[in-house]
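Quick entry, no commentary yet.
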Amino acid sequence: MLQLADLLTRFHSIFVRHQPSPIDWHAYRRAIQPDGAEGFQRPDYLSVSPARSATTWLFEELRLTQGLRVADVKETNYFSHGWLTGPYSRNFPNLSPGQVIGDISPNYAFLPRRAIEQITQVHPKVRILIVLREPVERVWSHLLFDLMRDSCFQVPRSDIGSIPESVLLPLITFYDSLCRYDVLVRHWLDNHPRDRIHIEWFD
């Protein structure tokens, strides 16, 4: 049986893990700036859809689309934290001329407004894809996924039903706060050409 104190401890570590850290925005802009000397490939598209919104399905479909190149790994997280460890081009080895490139990283849904401003200033022609899922379904799916698979939780599926409401409700509230659609969409629409933003529904 899952112990309440144990789950609360794990829940606390999740909160701590998601605390924002200071970002050197000058270094960020330099890292995402195209630089021919480092072989930087300018992204043609980015999926900023939140987790549990068909991002894996989209990744597999784009991999099969002729002339379109998705990063070799589904989640490069380059524009969230991957920029700290090397150029964007490392995600596209053996790139063929003329291929349309981009990546699908659900963590982009958490990008702060300052990061979005930097991305859109440096890459004004990048196309942005936002897939939105019915919010209650998405939050519940995200929470269940992390409860069973996140290293901080790893709750057996058989124990999920024993989680008391006093713990489950704060968890749901937290996961709901991670990605508000109104904030996500507004930040992109306020900073990026609208004709380069495509919003679609999960269904």
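second:
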Amino acid sequence: VDIKPGRATRSGPSYVGIGGNLGFGGTSALGDSSFAILSKIGLTSNISVRPTVLFRDNLTFLVPVTYDFGSGDAVEVSDDFVITAAPYAGAGVALSIGDNSSLGFLISGGVDVPLSKNFTATAGVNIGFLDGAEAGLLIGVGYTFPNIVR
């Protein structure tokens, strides 16, 4: 397997961006509402790492390794507007730092939707097992960078 960090995957180019997390229970920034800096770094044609930092009272780091599925069929909304979506799923680690620091297993899944040549929207669900199960819905937009690795 030829690993080339920063490459495009079947779900599209690598990106870095911002977003928000809507948490569903828990004490970390994953289980609470928080601001996010998110990214996707392609490693192979179908594997990527998606590091995310969630900002609340304390920081929570999410580092899943995902399998990126192809974009499949496009959904035509109108004659001039077509949506393509590329799902992903994977697992990794979640690290919450602060007064009650904890490290745990992470399950992640979502979808990337290209908005233009330079921007990709992303939405995903992350379930972390820190001091108990915590879940968050992450929604954001990323600035894509060209496939710098050939």
